[in-house]
Design goal:
The structure holds two protein chains of two kinds. Chain A is built from 14 helices and eight strands. By secondary structure, chain A is an alpha/beta fold. A four-stranded parallel beta sheet of chain A has the order 2-1-3-4, with helices on both faces. In chain A, strands 6-5-7-8 form a four-stranded parallel beta sheet. Chain B has one domain. Chain B is globular and about 65 Å long. The chains are: A alpha/beta, B alpha/beta. Chains A and B meet through helix 5, strand 4, helix 6 and helix 13 of A and helix 6, strand 4, helix 7, helix 14 and helix 15 of B. Bound molecules: iron/sulfur cluster (2 copies). One iron/sulfur cluster (SF4) binds next to helix 4, helix 5 and helix 13 of chain A.
């Protein structure tokens, strides 16, 4: 059995590699292979996989990338992820990427889709829209057609048709992936001392790069290895971290939260990993199945409209309950409209349910962890005091 | 000049007309409750004014209220109020100006309270923030909300799938909710009638915009333009009043062209047209007059602007079509300026620089508005590359006075105009005015 240390070391290497060697090698291994990049928060990776391509999550440059060119494309009041992504592009680090998908998460990524078309004309770039109307005959129809358009684009890119059976097989693999991801989350919320959040984070990040088959193996190995670890159980408070669904905080920030006395028991770092909440049916029309899963069985986040006012924000309360959390940390990238506009609504719902919270902002290249550590530490203490009363 | 009194009189007619129209709408809003009329709040880009008129509802536009309050210098306080209540300093100030105003009694420009909406008509066109804005208001008002999701033209065009989706939402979501809230049954012939009226106004509106191709330009298509878009972008498109407004306006401008006159400014006639500019981005409202003055003091006229296309890009040929009412509304929503992808926006600006014989492009980058702003530095480079004309960048905000620095803006504008001078004298422009 592989020890968690080996698994985590592998994930760390993938995480640190801003040249994406794994994906380059994957592509070079078989002539004609393609790589399709995607940004947060969601794309149907099944279609990319079924087209024989490698889906590659592009989540910015983190705190290790020196952004030199990217800043010349963005005003100071725009978040970091588009500039570091542009940096990755103009420095050739993404030169092996054949297609790029920009999901409808916000106006910044939306506009980046057009920038990509201009700056990298050889790459097939597509703004990927998802429905905000959840009726099968309205939003569903629209989405089925969008998915078919994406399927055509991928077929053109890969030079071969993307057949229904191939999509079914990919759905099965991603179902397994999501099951394993859910298992890791469940294990962490049960035994957070055995599954440090930085480890779980790296494991999930590996899923942005690795072929799904390989990621599935890695997740299984981790699930087998982590419970065997002998790690001290701390008297930490249990928190949900929310607002981190696009630009990622530095790994150090995640470690700092835990070091300051908070076990992260749920989060929204990489929603794509567990967007569909249960298995997408494999039988029947696969495109329709993906569409219906999006409409009726997917996660919630700021970019997705909630038609029912009474339900607005309850997804966070549910996450708190499900994971047995005692509080919520709102961490938002500076200048992130989706996270920051959603925040007051979520906070008022939490307040109505008596869930304590704190909030701060970060950037992917934030260096100063001390204030965050202090804030999270005070929060952890106050939660404990609260529960002792 | 002998023509002056005539021109002045004509000018007053159209301006007076618009003033009356705006006052009448605020009157309708203030008295909506007593009159038993339902109030629908909605947005400018992708607005469905003709459709709303079919249900006899009163139209409330929070963006316009924010602009009105901005020009009256009230938004600074409102924004602080919203921030005190937990809204981030980083997000769109229209939203915070609105939320702050509501917290302070939600007074209209006439000093009377605006009514709570009976329906939030959330047209998700061209901007992600709209959705959050109305979710925030919905949390407060707990009223019905109709969402119209208008897909973004990511590939630079509206596909059949997008059009069908919007039409279906109109039929299945928007119209039934408007019927329910208003108690009025939908009559498509009534809609056709309003759309017919819209098309008439649109024809004259485009004529006015395109008059700026003349030398001197009889209008300022940005600072003046924001007045000209008033009726057609807001609660009046489809009304006989709007048709009449644009008829009057066109007459006035025709007269100005005949007299060889330039634009009218708050300080009177602009005498010499020294620079012809294209401007991208919304204006600043809290110092609108000062901002404008910086331009006309230097003889700089804006001959085309993208902001005057946020509520519809009519000069590319679109007209509301009574023969295809719902499809035409869908087409309209899809085609609004910020719903077009960045390459299409650049193409449009390039066309403006060339067709309006502009000296260059000035970008007013708005801190609030990622929809406009994200990508503008690439727009700037592309336009310089494609047209060989210099471009420059200034940064302000819509209604947050903390982000309007007059000295800075003036400085940049002046160095930009100098750059144009140099270019005229044959020197190569340096990079954009930093
Ligand atoms: S961090 Fe927020 S604002 Fe920036 S690109 Fe991501 S979702 Fe958009
Ligand atoms: S972000 Fe821009 S388009 Fe959206 S509401 Fe604010 S000012 Fe309007």
């Amino acid at each position: 059995m592989t020890a968690t240390a080996d698994i985590v070391a592998r994930c760390q290497t993938l995480f640190d590699d801003l040249h994406f060697t794994y994906a380059r090698e994957w592509k070079a291994a078989v002539p004609g292979r393609k790589v399709v990049g995607y940004m947060p928060f969601y794309v149907p990776r099944e279609l990319i996989h079924a087209a024989g391509a490698l889906p590659l999550g592009v989540l910015g440059g983190g705190d290790q990338l020196e952004v030199i060119h990217g800043d010349a494309y963005y005003q100071s009041y725009i978040c970091r992820i588009p500039r570091s992504t542009v940096e990755l592009g103009v420095t050739g680090r993404l030169d092996f990427v054949d297609g790029m998908l920009f999901p409808s998460i916000c106006d910044v990524i939306r506009n980046l889709s057009g920038m990509w078309k201009i700056m990298f004309p050889k790459v097939k770039s597509r703004y990927f829209d998802v429905p905000q109307n959840f009726r099968n005959d309205v939003g569903g129809e629209f989405y089925i057609n969008e998915l078919n358009e994406l399927r055509d684009m991928l077929a053109e890119l890969g030079g071969r048709a993307v057949g229904d059976d191939a999509i079914r097989a990919s759905i099965a693999l991603y179902n397994e992936n999501r099951r394993l991801v859910r298992d890791v989350y469940a294990l962490r919320s049960k035994q957070p001392w055995k599954t440090p959040s930085a480890e779980v984070y790296l494991l999930m990040r590996a899923g942005m790069i690795l072929a799904v088959e390989e990621h599935n193996r890695l997740l299984s190995e981790y699930l087998a290895a982590a419970p065997q670890e002998d790690r001290p159980r701390r008297d930490n408070s249990r928190v949900v971290v929310t607002g981190v669904f696009c630009e990622q905080p530095p790994l150090n920030l995640i470690k700092s939260i835990e070091l300051s006395g908070c076990y992260i028991v749920d989060d929204d770092f990489m929603l794509v990993n567990r967007w569909e909440r249960s298995d997408v049916p494999v039988e029947g029309d696969p495109i329709r199945n993906l569409a219906l899963a999006y409409l009726h069985d997917s996660g919630d986040t700021s970019a997705k409209y909630e038609p029912d006012q009474k339900k607005k924000g309850l997804y966070l309360v549910d996450a708190v309950k499900r994971s047995g959390a005692e509080g919520v940390i709102f961490a938002a990238p500076s200048f992130c409209d989706p996270a920051l506009l959603e925040r007051p609504m979520l906070q008022s719902v939490l307040a109505a349910h008596g869930v304590p919270y704190i909030a701060f902002k970060y950037a992917e290249n934030s260096g100063q962890m001390q204030p965050i550590r202090e804030q999270a530490g005070t929060f952890a203490d106050s939660i404990k005091l609260w529960s002792e009363q | 000049m002998s023509a002056m009194p005539v021109t002045e009189a004509v000018k007053e007619q159209s301006m007076l007309k618009q003033k009356e129209m705006i006052a009448a709408n605020y009157e309708l809003l203030a008295t909506a409750r007593e009159a038993g009329r339902k109030v629908v709040s909605t947005f400018v880009p992708g607005n469905l004014n003709e459709l709303m008129m079919c249900f006899d509802v009163v139209n409330n536009l929070p963006e316009i209220n924010a602009i009105q309050n901005g020009m009256r210098k009230k938004t600074g306080g409102y924004i602080m109020e919203a921030e005190k209540r937990g809204h981030s300093e980083d997000v769109c100030t229209y939203v915070k100006a609105d939320i702050g105003a509501i917290a302070k009694g939600n007074l209209g420009p006439d000093g009377r309270p605006l009514p709570d909406p009976d329906l939030l008509l959330l047209s998700y066109t061209g901007c992600f923030t709209f959705m959050k804005w109305f979710e925030l208001l919905r949390q407060q008002y707990k009223c019905e909300t109709a969402m119209l999701h208008v897909p973004y033209e990511g590939d630079g065009k509206a596909s059949k799938n997008m059009r069908d989706y919007v039409v279906k939402q109109l039929k299945e979501e928007v119209i039934p909710k408007l019927e329910r809230v208003s108690g009025v049954k939908f009559d498509i012939d009534r809609l056709r009638q309003y759309l017919r009226e819209s098309a008439k106004a649109e024809e004259n509106f485009v004529w006015v915009l395109e008059s700026a191709k003349k030398r001197p330009s009889p209008i300022d298509a940005y600072f003046g333009g924001v007045y000209y878009i008033g009726p057609i972008f807001t609660a009046f498109r489809g009304t006989a009043d709007a048709t009449e407004y644009y008829r009057l306006l066109r007459q006035e401008i025709e007269q100005r062209v005949a007299d060889g006159l330039g634009p009218i400014t708050p300080d009177g006639e602009m005498h010499q047209e020294r620079y012809r500019l294209v401007v991208e981005g919304p204006p600043n409202w809290t110092s609108f007059r000062d901002f404008w003055k910086m331009f006309y003091d230097e003889g700089a006229v804006v001959v085309a602007s993208t902001y005057t296309k946020v509520g519809g890009v009519y000069d590319l040929g679109f007209r509301h079509d009574p023969e295809h009412p719902l499809e035409s509304l869908a087409e309209y929503c899809l085609g609004c300026y910020t719903n077009r992808n960045l390459p299409s926006r650049i193409d449009l600006i390039e066309k403006y620089v060339k067709e309006y014989e502009a000296d260059g492009l000035l970008i007013n980058s708005i801190k609030s508005c990622n929809s406009f702003s994200a990508g503008q530095l690439l727009v700037l480079r592309e336009i310089e590359r494609r047209t060989g004309k210099p471009a420059a960048f200034i940064e302000t905000d819509l209604v947050d006075p903390r982000y309007f620095s007059p000295a800075n803006v003036k400085n940049r504008l002046e160095s930009y105009l100098q750059m144009i001078e140099q270019k005229r004298q044959g020197a190569t422009p340096s990079a954009a005015a930093e």
